[in-house]
Structures are given as structure tokens and as C-alpha cells.
Amino acid sequence: MSALALATAADETTAPLPAMRDDLHVQRVGAYRDGAPRFRIHDPLRNRYFELGLIEVELLAQWRPGATAVELADVVSQQYDSYVDPQDVLVLRNFLIQHQLIDGSAGAGYLMLRDMFRRRGQQHWLLWLLHSYLFFRIPLVRPDAWLVRMLPYARSLVAWPCRIALLAVALLTPVMVAREWTEYTASLAGLFTFNGLLASAVAAFFAKILHELGHAFVARHHGVRVPVMGVAFLVLWPVFYTDTSDSWKLADHRARFRIAAAGIATELAIALVCLLLWTVTPPGGLRTALFFLSTTSILITLSINASPFMRFDGYFLLSDALDFPNLHERSGALARWWMRRGLWGLDLPAPEVHSRRMSVFLIVFAYITWAYRAVVFAGIAVLVYFAFFKLLGILLMAVEVAWFLVRPVWSEAHAVWKLRALLKPRWLRVAALAALVLGALTLFAWSGESRAPALLLAKEETRLYAPAPARVAAVPVQAGQVVQPGQVLLQLEAPDLVYRARANAVRIDRVRGELSRIPASDRQRESALVLQEEMAQALSEQQAIDSELGLLTLRAGAGGKVVDMPADLAPGRWVSPRQLLGRLVDPRQSQVRAWVSETQVRRLAVGDAVAFVPRQLERAILRGKVVRIDATGSRVLPHQLLEGRHGGDLAATQDAKGEWMLRETLYQVDVQGVDLPATPMVQGGRLVISTGPWSAISAATRQLLTVLVRESGF
Questions:
Q1: How far apart are CA 324 and CA 34, in angstroms?
Q2: From CA 133, how far away is CA 136, in angstroms rounded?
Q3: What DSSP state is assigned to residue 485?
């Protein structure tokens, strides 16, 4: 250490200590896992709690304004017969200054707070804007008095009769949903439409209000004051919050666990009740509202709130269950220590000492948390890019990546660099880790196979549709019947065409009669020309009507088997041109037809070997070769069996014209093989495409260049 640094450290230890605020409360709140007492200091002005160790409590007990760090360390060392370093006093003093826990009315405390605020005032306005953009809160209501009045009613909702009723609902709901499972899964596809997303947002709004009320009522039940409820914005995304900071004064960590679990329990209870009511409610607006409320509550609770890797309810549940406050920070510090020691040979004491089992859990938990957050923050970065116009989207995406992904890595690299004199790098481990990361990225970029939705169907088939809105006159064949070429499959009738034919026949007879009565004079021959023109028009129209009437007789163009004919297709029923009336297939030959993405189609070529995996696991895997690849793609859903409501892998939405549109362009691929079984029925499955490393790298490179070119224009 230089002479200047030694002089500065000496000045710090001999400087007078500031006075503490009189309104602070130091409370004992149980004990640590090793039995040592735990203390917290409460700041009532900001309603914040700070964890204290035993040494800090001993220093605060002997704290004297105007004394120096050396004097206070000597007093505590003599009283407790253990050495206290003056630097520990300075660390505590800086902590008190940083969190504004000292008296700043006059003296040394005023000067220290003034210097701190001056340093904060030098913060660049861009950094202030960044912090405000990433997170800020807006308090809305002060509900404590209202919660006290409503608490008896809330307690009645969790009394034993209600608990027994909720248990019965929990046991009955899965049974009832199983009976409606087909309709339930079909309704799930509606979540991804515009109206579904809007309804989900409304349902989430009400569910989150009840979620926060669950936290608030349970906190008030345990005597915890709830000063404010409001909305917080995480990267401009609104999230309701309830201030239950006073729960830190509770010595029983199980009470804090119940407060943290109240929101999830409330949402799950609402979801169960709404789901049960959905199964017994007739179709209509109420049934739709119950579906969205139940489904939204379940999905958000399980995917977001229950996760312990972000600072949501799941994190506080795990922290309180383990009675381990500041779980993320403490586990992260232990994981960084372990990494520095294992990779760089940095021989420093661990930040905390735990049992081997607990240490392993904390280190693994920290690494999983980092990986989880990296994926989440990368997704948020992409989301904000597409949520705003391009220039602002690029800026916000860069902010997300720099702050949440680059900054932690840079901070760790900077911390290790400052300790470079103590490093003893273990290059073999570093190389092994680098190889493992690169290998994982390579495997991720080059999956040995990719899959696409596919159907096994007959090679030759004819779909039967009505040429126009018509009525069934006769059904001479049945489903499953084998027919011959030219055989009548379906006889339709159109009353409007019959009426037009009769009216046109009357017109033809009238014109013929007038022509037969016209004498052969020059003047009357001019009228004959007009009548002959009208006769030609009538005959032409009659020919067109006869042609349309002929189309109403559906005949087999080739021999085959009739399948997929509706069971209710009977004489007298009206049918539309969009309704499938059946298929005529040749059951002797079949093929696989798949629909691949733009990335997959670049990896395919005619003659490539592929495999078809049926949805029914008991069926054998079929192998074949690609015989045709479409040069142009389409976003129209090619077959209803491929859509999610029917068990497929594609998500489609209905446009204004009634057509089902996909989110991406797909290319049709036909596959044939010697072992494809003859089948008249359409079977769903997936096409497995084997890919090599070079094709994967080439496809990934082309995709990257395509995205860069597409997004480079403003």
C-alpha cells in the first residue's frame, strides 16, 4: 500500500463518527441456522429493513457520536474480549451513510450525507434515465385501514368449511375437465389469437388484483402493516405490487412463508373454482370469461410467480422455506468464489461457511439462476425490439443486452483483473470449460435432426365438394365402399338452377312461337333478327344451366374407396361449397406429405432420406425419400389435422375471409418409400429430417444474413 493510501486509511480511522437517527429500531428476529442470534434494523421513514450480524449489533450498542473508529473498536474489544478491527467500524459507518441512517441535522453526519448526495448528483442523466426505464414504482392506494375492516370477512373465506369445499373442488375439477378435455384443448388455441390475448390481459388484470389482496390480507392477519399497494414497471411492463416489508419484523419465518404463498394460493383457488364452473356452464360469454380467468391464472402462476430464479413469489417462498434471506445475492457470491478458486486459483476464504450439502445447493442454484435470467433477459431484449419502431427498438434492445447480459460478465472480469497478482490460472480447466461451452453451442446450433409436421395419406385422392350451395338429392354410395370409374357418388340438386332452367325453357318456347308467326316481309324480317338474337342467348344460357346441373352429379374419376363421408349426409340436407363431402382414395398406394419451414427447406434436397414418426406411438416409424419440394411457400393452413386444436403442431388464426393463416411460411414436401403402408385414412405425425454439421452451419449463416439484411433497412 502506498504512503498516500496509508495516510488516508489513518485519517478515516481517526475521524469522528456521526450520530445515528433516533427513530431507528434494532430488533432481534430469531436465530441463524447455526444458532447465532439475528438482528434487523428498521428504518420507519422508508419502511426498509437491514440485516445485522452480531458484531454490528455490538458496535451499534457502543456507538458514540464524536468517537473515532479506533476508540470504538478498542471499547468493543475490551468489553467482549475479542479483537475488533477499526476497518470493521468503517465498513459499518459507510453502510449507515449509504442508507441514510445517520443524523444529518448537523456536525459530521451533515457533511458525510452532503458528500454522498453530491456524488449521486454527479450521476449522468442517461444513467438516471436507464434506471428509471428499467424499474420504477407508482403507489396507488394506502389500504391498511380498509384491510383491517375487511379482515374478518377474509378470514371467513379460509375457515374450515371453505377449506373442505376447496379440497372437494380440487378433487372434482380434474375429473370434470377430463370429460371436457377435447373442448378444453381446442379452447387453448384461442389464447394465441388477438381476441384471446386481449381477453387474457383482462383476466390477468383481475387475477393479479386478487393475487395482491391475498398477500395483503395474510400479512394483516399476522399483524403486518400494509402501507401501500400500487403498480411497478419492469422494463415498461406493468406489475401490481403490495408493500409487505414489515413482514421482516416477524421472527417466525413460517409466517413470512405464508405471506409469500398467499398470492399463488389465491390465484390457484380462483383457477380451480372457475375451471369447475366452466365445465358446467353452458356456452356463452360467461363460460368464455371463466375459461380465460382460470387458464390465465394457472399459466402465469406456474410460469412466472412460482419461479425462484426471479424476485417474484417463488423466490421469497424458497428463501423463507430455507430461512435464508438474500438468497440470490449470497448464493451468487458463493458461486463466484467457487468459480474464481476453481478456474483462477484464487485462494481466498469463502464469503460464508455452510455445510457441504448446503454449499453445493447454493452454488448450483446460482448457476441455474444466471442461466435462467440470461434466457429471460435475451427474450425481453427481442421483445422490446419488436414492440417499438426500429430505431428505438434497437436502442432499447442494446440497453437490455448491455445492462443485463454484458454488465455482469464485465463486472466479474473487472473484479478478477483487480486480483490478478493473486491469480494462479488453471488453464486446463479453463480450456475444458471453453470447449464445453463451445460444444454446447455447436450442439444447439446443429441439432442432429429437425422435425416438421407431416401427414400420411393416400397418393391418389379426390376430394368431393359441392360446386355451389346445393341440396342433397341422393347418396348412392356409403363410406368405405369401393367404386368404379364413372360411378355416381353423390347426386345434388339446386332449386334455383331448376327454376332458371324452366324459366329459360318457357322463354325459348315463346321466342320460337313468335318466329314461326312472322311473315316474310322486309319490315318484319328486322324483328325476326332481334328474335333470333334472343333465341341464341336463351340457348346459350340453357347450355350453361345444363352444364351447372351436370356438375351436381359427382362421379368417380377413377376407381377407389370412399372415405371421410359425413354420417349425417342424407337427402334433403343443404351443403356449402366449402364443406368436405368425402374423399375418394386409392388405398393401394400412399405417401407422406410434410410442411417444412424456410430454414428446414434449405437443408433438404430431392432424394434425401427422411423418416415419418406417427403420433400413435404404437405404430412403426416409416422411412422414405423426398421426391418433390415446393419452390414457393404458403401461410394458409394446409390441413386441419395439423392445427393445434386437432392435436397438430401448428398454430393458426382465422382471418377476415374465414381462412386459417399460419404465423410463418411453410413449404410442402412429398415423400415416397417402399415401406409406406397402404392406407385410406389420413394419419398425423412428424417428418424427421437428418442434418449434418455443414448443412446446419450453412443454413444458420444464410438465416443470419437474411435477418441482418431484412432488419437493416429503416
A1: 12
A2: 7
A3: T
